[in-house]
Amino acid sequence: MTVSITDVARAAGVSASTVSRALRGRPGVSDEVRAQITAVATQLGYTASRSASSLASGRTFTIGVVVPYVGRWFFGTVLDAAEHVFSAAGYDVLLYNLGSPETRKRFFTRLPLRKRVDAVLSLLIPDEEESAALRSLGVPLASTVGGARPGFSVVGIDDRAGAEHAVRHLVNLGHRRIGMISGSSGEQHWTTPVARRQAYLDVLSDAGIAHDPALEADGDYTVEGGERAMTELLAATRPPTAVFAQSDEMAMGALRALRRHRLRVPDDVSVVGFDDHELSDVLGLTTVAQPVAGQGAEAARLLLRQLDEPDGERAGHVQMPIRLVLRETTAPPSPRGPQ
Amino acid sequence: MTVSITDVARAAGVSASTVSRALRGRPGVSDEVRAQITAVATQLGYTASRSASSLASGRTFTIGVVVPYVGRWFFGTVLDAAEHVFSAAGYDVLLYNLGSPETRKRFFTRLPLRKRVDAVLSLLIPDEEESAALRSLGVPLASTVGGARPGFSVVGIDDRAGAEHAVRHLVNLGHRRIGMISGSSGEQHWTTPVARRQAYLDVLSDAGIAHDPALEADGDYTVEGGERAMTELLAATRPPTAVFAQSDEMAMGALRALRRHRLRVPDDVSVVGFDDHELSDVLGLTTVAQPVAGQGAEAARLLLRQLDEPDGERAGHVQMPIRLVLRETTAPPSPRGPQ
DNA sequence: CTGTTAGCGCGTTCAC
DNA sequence: GTGAACGCGCTAACAG
User: Tell me, what is one Gene Ontology molecular-function annotation carried by this entry (chains A, B) (predicted)?
Assistant: First the structure.
């Protein structure tokens, strides 16, 4: 049925170990024998069983990747880039999509990764307990979200600086009533919204603008949430003339809400997002760009490096560059204000 | 170091085989012994090695999923839904992202899936040779794209009917010069663009509208491609008053091109897309909606069913429903035409 | 340079 | 109901 190493060995007139050595490019095999074995193997369509070889060697040549929502642009893009790096290095990717709390819980208690992967890349922020579970796997760990964590190599951006760019841009345009759509819900140990909010508060304070809690709303990191949040902000006694959305998807929701309220962007209200989503350009959205694919690729490279040199440093923190991308959703406030 | 089945056996005072039976819920173990073993196992944090168990049993409890671009909304959404179905059934997902021709070629020649998966879900259209390679794995196969193929269960939509809806909508609005942005490049054995184009031609013909080759352009299934294609169409001697884009992403590119040309949508030009991308609503894009996540989930279910009853029918073809979603990018042609 | 001998950790007969 | 023996397909250590 399925051809095994002994089939190849028999056909080539050598022992199984020689076949193993030959096919994996290990030394100790004469060139002619190796060539002959290679020929026989391809002719027979032989591929070593990963189960058997990892059982024997302890190495799986597989990387576990943990994601909250593969369907979302950000995570899909990070995953795409990381997968390319892994597969180019000969590693397979075992994907775990942990959107719901139940699947997430089950994953971390049963830990199906145990004995199955050589390393783990997490695109979600594990809490203390979950981090400990991952560390217990005894393999290199990396993450593309959140702050530095013991045992993890983390690739990220300076959330604070990014948000400062965005809000300062609005201040410089002359806005004084600046709202924010945050994305705090969901993850508990998610430092990103906190850092971006702090930056918002700081820039306002620096500009001598009093903070108005009525100008903050939660957008849940989704388009719909952003729309709801914007609608909320517009219901304030004195609505904002500009809004900083902590993600482009929420900013897009805000744009929709504004259109439904017959408000013009940027004439009546300015909007700035965060991410530089692939469609932000289409919408003309001013935003803070971050290298999303770049972060996935870099995290993958960090893991591969740790796999190559197990004695190297186990963790690190890489900051990727960000930049403000000016497009068409921001402008000075209208002299007569919104409405 | 890592706890094995014999560790559990010793700690529970039984043999390894009893532990194996107990933990997998097989009959032949007294309830009390089973309970005790379960307790010991969880206390020790034992998880059976997948490598060892699949080597012994032949089952891997892993599904291979082959995707062209995980980062694209369509594929990410299909994958997300499929993964949920698989993981709920206790299967892991091995992901292969085959965007570039080289990785694709390498994948199909080396076939790293061999002996590693119990089934394969393909989100790309394999050509004859690639199909044969997948069939040689000897496991159930499914696909969410393209037409019926021997050996595969296919879940899809009626591309022809969908495109007819879209184009007929434009005709009914009174348009006579209707352009099309197709997405033919890339995949060779990709029947989708062909079917959608045929529908376009048929509807025009039915309406007594002569086909003008200058009104067709290739958009490569991307936003940028759509923008280029629209720009091309606008350069025609007599540009279209309406455009059918074979995907929402190309339609979005078209919208951008139109905005750059200072043309109003739908006043000057109407646009209809295909897919109902998550952001189409934000853009107010009229489009043909298809159940993207639904197709992924359904294909996954088909595979699981084949895994459960190996003697059942090996292949099938499921058609999912489509519907035209009317939004704000289509309207009757302006009396004075575009420009 | 090559073949032989042992396991890797589990599932699966068979006995008991 | 339970345990002992064997083998899944491969790699690693040891001979030669």
Answer: transcription cis-regulatory region binding
The per-residue pLDDT for A312 is 64
Rounded to whole angstroms, the Cα distance separating A308 from A312 reads 9
Q: Tell me the pLDDT of chain B averaged across its residues.
A: 92
Cβ pairs A/B, distance under 8 A: 161
Assess whether pLDDT exceeds 50 at residue A35: yes
Q: Is the CB of A57 under 7 A from strand D?
A: yes
Categorise residue A244: left if φ over 0, alpha if ψ from -120 to 50, beta otherwise: beta
Question: Which nucleotide is closest to the Cα of B6 by its C1'?
Answer: C9
Q: In sequence order, which ranges of B173-291 are alpha helices (DSSP H)?
A: 191-206, 223-234, 248-260, 280-283
Instruction: Assess contact for A141 and A127: CB atoms under 8 A.
Output: no
- Residue A119 has what pLDDT? 96
Q: Which residues of B touch A95 (CB under 8 A)?
A: 65, 79, 83, 93-95
Name the closest nucleotide to B27, judged by C1' and CA.
Answer: D1
Cα angle for residues B181, B183, B189 (degrees, 5° grid): 150
Please determine, for residue B192, whether its predicted confidence score (pLDDT) is greater than 90: no
Is the CB of B35 less than 7 A from some atom of nucleic acid strand D?
A: no
Q: Which tokens hold the place of A226?
A: 């952003």
**Mutation to test the B interface, candidates A24, A43, A46, A50, most B Cβ within 10 Å:** A50
Backbone angles phi, psi at A288, to 5 degrees: -95, 115
Contact yes or no for A79 and B71 at CB 8 A? yes
In this complex, do B282 and A256 lie within 8 Å of one another by their Cβ atoms? yes
- A300-317 burial string, b = 16+ CB within 10 Å, else e? bbbbbebbeeeeeeebee
Across the interface, whether the CB atoms of A256 and B92 are under 8 A apart is answered no
Asked whether residue A34 carries a pLDDT value surpassing 60, the answer given is: yes
Give the single-character DSSP code of A68: S
Percent of chain B scoring above 70 in pLDDT: 95
**Number of helices and strands (H, E) in chain B?**
13, 12
pLDDT band of residue B176 (cuts 50, 70, 90) is very high
Mean pLDDT of A136-155: 90
Select from B255, B288, B257, B283 the least CA-distant residue to B273: B288
Per-residue model confidence (pLDDT) at position A317: 87
CB atoms B52 and A51 under 8 Å: yes
pLDDT of residue A339: 46
Amino acid at A274: F
User: What are the structural domains, with CATH classification, of chain A?
Assistant: 5-48 (1.10.260.40), 59-157+292-320 (3.40.50.2300), 159-291 (3.40.50.2300)
How far is it, in rounded angstroms, from Cα B242 to Cα B269? 5
> Per DSSP, which regions of A107-166 are E strands?
119-122, 141-143, 152-157
Nucleotide nearest to B29 (CA to C1'): D1
Mean pLDDT for B192-212 is 95
Output the 3-class SS for B72-111. Answer: CHHHHHHHHHHHHHHHHCCCEEEEEECCCHHHHHHHHHHC
**CB contact (8 A) between residue A70 and residue B70:** yes
| B14 CB less than 7 Å from any atom of strand D | yes
Residue A111's pLDDT is what?
Answer: 87
